[in-house]
Amino acid sequence: MDSYHIHALLPNQCGSSLAQIIDAPLPLVWSILRQFDNPKAYKRFVKSCIMRTGDGGIGSIREVIVRSGLPGKTSMERLDKLDDEKHVINISIVGGEHKLVNYSSTTTVHVEEEEKGMKTVVIESYVVDIPAGNSKEDACLFANTIIGCNLRSLAKLAERMAGN
After folding, report:
1. pLDDT in tens, 16-38
2. Half-sphere exposure of 14 (CA within 13 A, CB side)
3. Closest Cα partner for 96 from 67, 128, 125, 62?
4. E-assigned strands of the chain?
5. Is the dihedral angle over the CA atoms 24, 30, 141, 17 positive or is it negative?
6. Nearest CA to 127 among 45, 12, 30?
7. Are 94 and 77 contacting, i.e. CB atoms less than 8 angstroms apart?
8. How far apart are CA 136 and CA 139, in angstroms?
9. N or C: which end of the chain has fewer CB within 10 A?
């Protein structure tokens, strides 16, 4: 795991890293993932997204409306880093009605060579505050569940687009 996924945690925070192997070319996976203005493309819990500031580049802020049934309604998210050469994206949640206070994530995309050909590996790591009344394990489980669903959805979309 590269240096992008090493985070210093405060006592009231938790964090983790999740990886997903995708049977699709890296440029295709990155083209989906890098679209800050279109998280709905692969994030199933997103009902809609409205750009509040910027054009989808670094410093842009989006308002994500979350599907009903989840513990949250909206999320204001800022694009902190977007590196098309190194395939790194960093997003921070800066407001909204949800449980992910002071959430920051880094996602990287890598080529994985296997006997049967090239695959793409997506790694997403995060740090988030532990909500009052929750344990560290509960907070991480919640975040891991959301991220895991998003990564699996990204894999299905990219593999379908690649014809796999």
Report:
1. 999 999 999 999 999 999 999 99
2. 17
3. 62
4. 13-22, 46-53, 61-66, 74-83, 88-95, 104-114, 117-129
5. positive
6. 12
7. yes
8. 5
9. N
